[in-house]
Amino acid sequence: MRAIAYVRTRKIEPAASEQAVSRQRDAVIAWINSAADHVVITTYIEDESQPGLRPNLKTAIDVCQKQNAILLVASTKAIGSGEPFCLPTFDVPVVKLQAQHRF
Q: From residue 36, how far is each of 10, 26, 40, 102 by CA, in Å?
């Protein structure tokens, strides 16, 4: 199963952001290791410091459609003082991982 990973960060809160990215990457690695056919083609990292702007999410979805891949959302949990990520409806298959702990 081919996937595009989507990882979120919040650069205006460096400590929370670093922890969040580390846990999300761990979740992606665990997903890859869970089956021999799991492959991540590429990873898009979104800075959530500016609410509502998600250009990398749009790019990730476009690449999923072109590559016939799933979108692997590493976490929907809030990062630092930010809001949780509410998954909109997508035109591509989505697998939602949950990195451990609040960031």
A: 32, 17, 12, 29
